[in-house]
Amino acid sequence: MLNLKNQFIMAPIKLGYSDGKGNITPKHIDFYTQRSPYLGAIALEPLYMDAGLRELPTQLGIDSDDKITGYQELIRQIHKTDTKVIAHLNHPGRMANPKIPGNYFWSSTDKACPNGGAKPKRMDREMMDKVIQMHIQSAERAQKAGFDFIEIQFGHGYLMAQFLSPETNDRNDEYGGSFENRMRYPLELLRAVKAKTNLPILARISGDEMIPNGFHLPEMISFAQKLEKEGIEAIHVTAGSACSTPPWFFQHMFIPKGKTWEFAAKIKEQVKVPVIFVGRINSSKDVDLLKEKYKADYLALGRALVADQDFVGKYLKQTEGQIRPCLACSEGCLGGVKQGKGLGCVVNPLVNTGYQKPQKAEQEKIFAIVGAGLAGMQAAITLKERGYDVDLYEKEQPGGQFNLAYLPPKKESLKEIVDYYKNELIAQGVNLIIEEATAEKINQKNYDAVILATGAIPATPPISGLKKYYWTEFLNDDQLPKNEKVLVVGGGLIGLEVASKLVDGNNQIIVVEMLDEIARGMEMIEKTMTLKRLQENKVAIYLKHQVVKIEEDKVLLKHDEGELMFDGIQKIIITAGMKSYIPFKDTIKAPVYTVGDAKQVGKAQEAIHEAYELALNL
Is pTM, for the whole model, over 0.85? Predict the structure, then answer.
């Protein structure tokens, strides 16, 4: 066993908080020390071993001795909570970022990643020896810095997996062909690192690459047994490839939950070393299941600890409160990193914002909030945490338009944040008033301020002859048309989600978008998988087309080269954008603030974070 204070480990997640030179920054220290009190160990984000092998410009590096001091300070801080620290060493091979100047690309093959990437050089013996030396030197630095473990990445489509996989290993020397040969180089590297360091070594593997020609569980069981014979301390089992199957790599909401656990359980049956289970462990029920059904030795949590830094403390009843759920949406974490902003979180306003937890206010105040969408609920909860009284007005039900967000296919996990907020309203004692607010009602009470979180309403384009049309009604199963010809006007996020849902009714679907870009505002993985679903179901998409006239069942479109007419259209859906809805703002006596879509139409992350910031400062 790994001799940790408990069985919970933080999995390696790219933060993107470095200074561009691979150094530890105060953001790293804040992020990791906020999470360390309740964890047995923390794996830092993947550490690059050469500046030419970065996946992010702002990734942490362990490529030079001058970085050791920074790690020593971070490790010292984490060790204060009796939490151990893991150096996760990863050579990306052909998966190094082609957009970063100076990066180079080596692999078992000379084939580029089919999802994009640079053409790599097929590694010769000299290159292979250099990569081994790179791992040895990085492991030695990790030992000097005070790390407790080293974890070597053998999975996720990175360099070692590129040798292991028949999909990427097309060599005809002693390192290609049979699985025995494909394992040869990864095992050589492990032996070399093990011989040069006293630190225990963990292995991270993909239980299955989730591609037809990749490696699968039977081979990974054999590889795990080889790793055990080589003296590995524990095996960390995940799934997928960053190159070919990103939804599995990121454990996105669009893939089935629990598959990685099954892989880990099968491997655990065949080895005696501890097995670390990972992959969308984001509720107490998940933890209980892994402990009871699978007898998991260790549990690695990634994005669940981004969404709630106190997840494990709350599970262990060492701190109070319900767990704020990770939605597996990748919007704030992956999206923030891809945009160069660094890891953030849709549901946790403490991540990468500089905000602190609410402090009790010195004087009593009472606030009114109109609208119990995400922004309104977050503002209400934060104001209550500060000790203020809050009346929250909602004319229908808490959740607002986010009650639509979890209705499209594969997005059920988004409902968890609405349920979380509803429970928090009760736990914090917010006075939820289910009735439509008016200026007269609000002016009758002496509020210190009023927050309008009234959201947004659909915008209607000026189309000649447009009479009866729909918006998001068809996201509800009981209203879904079947076997009809349906026109969707607007190819942004809402339009494509409605189109994706219409597929379930075997409808003939036409999507028309004025601009030259489809699925604006949609998270990358969701966009890729939604467009694939629409393509497979023969949904017609017309870019740079504008609907200009409707006559009965005929629709006229204009485009750069002329006109196009559709007939037999049975239903029209308008998803051509939203506009802020701000009723009675100028007739309220108390100071008025707007937040969320009422202030500016945006995404859930912006609504939650703005509401939190406003409630901190009122």
Answer: yes
